[in-house]
Amino acid sequence: MTARLETVAISKQYHSVTALSPTDLQVQDGEFLTLLGPSGSGKTTLLQIIAGLVEPSDGRLLIDGKDATRKPAGERGIGMVFQSYALFPHMSVWDNIAYPLRMRKMKKPEMDQAVKGALEMVQMGEYAHRLPRELSGGQQQRIALARCFVYRPSVILLDEPLGALDKKLREHMQSEIRSLHKDLGATFIYVTHDQEEALNLSDRICLMNQSKIEQLGTPQDLYDRPQTAFSAQFIGYSNLLQGSLSGSAGAQILSNGSFSVPVCLSPATGSHAAASNVTGSVADQRTLVVRPEDARLASNEHAFLRGRVSEVVFAGSDFRVQIDIGSGQPFALRCGRRDAPAVGDHVGINWNPEHTAVVAR
């Protein structure tokens, strides 16, 4: 099956600065792909190259299997939604949405019907004759989305479109974007630095770091099976335990002098690189990834680690507990409201080794 959009060793260099290392990426028809990463990771540069706003230094961009690397932005059939909304301040909501249809010389009856449908899609029909300055930030973002969706491009790029909204409105708009994606059936490529947003919206996440792809997969893949320490730290919160890996197949131990804990290197843990090196006796530097929700308080005889509770924070449905496991190293876990320890308590910790991951140090 031909990808809707594909980059082949696409890259961008600004003099001595590498904004994007050679990148291969395939985006399938109808997919919701999120480019996630910290500032400077290359995600926005990649999006701008796809949009035609930045010319790559090398590589190719294919749309529906055809080379579009040097094609002008207006001829790529791609829609874009910006964080800044980019609405025309002197035009009404109706005229803002109608603008791309006028540029395509659509006849008025069809244009009026399309604009009305787009307004209904974002639930803004009653605001059709207002100016952008008369709308809230969330309302302006809905109009920006409607203006992009009205001509139904096959690929829609969204550059941190919810970054300027408050938390409650951002969550509401995430739900609307999910619904719009389902209704339109278009291919969405979405840029954000917000990990929760990426987990909530995406079919797949392309996690970027230092101008290249760090890991690519479904939200569950990245959360449950991180392939690097950066992935484990950036997607959700993780406890990272560093040490030497030793043992034979089926009985591996990670230790560093302060602790010695069992690890599971089956493919299900996402520890493929580590597992491939385990043949007989080994000693290798690795990082064990334990999510707070997978750890639990345990009696001393069943504990993998022991420590002193340094902080207990009420989080509504549960408590977030911070434990000092030695040398000032914190370990976080979550526990039920009836099971919360007190600050100063000495406690044991364990987890199911199959629910952890082992990555390179």
CATH topology of the largest domain: Rossmann fold
Mean pLDDT score, rounded? 88
Q: How large is the radius of gyration?
A: 25 Å
Strand order, biggest sheet? 6-7-8-3-9-10
Number of helices, where a helix is a run of at least 4 consecutive DSSP H or I residues: 9
Query: Which spans have pLDDT < 50 for at least 5 consecutive residues?
Result: 267-283
Largest sheet geometry? 6 strands, mixed
Shape: elongated
Instruction: Let me know the CATH homologous superfamily of the largest domain.
Output: P-loop containing nucleotide triphosphate hydrolases
Q: Give the tally of β-strands.
A: 20
Strand content: 25-35%
Tally the structural domains: 2
Helix content: 10-25%
Measured between the Cα atoms of the first and last residue, the distance is: 37 Å
* Top-tier CATH class of the largest domain: Alpha Beta
Class by alpha and beta content: alpha+beta
CATH architecture annotation name of the largest domain: 3-Layer(aba) Sandwich
Query: What's the order of the H and E elements?
Result: EEEHEEEHHHEHEHEEHHEEEHEEEEEEE
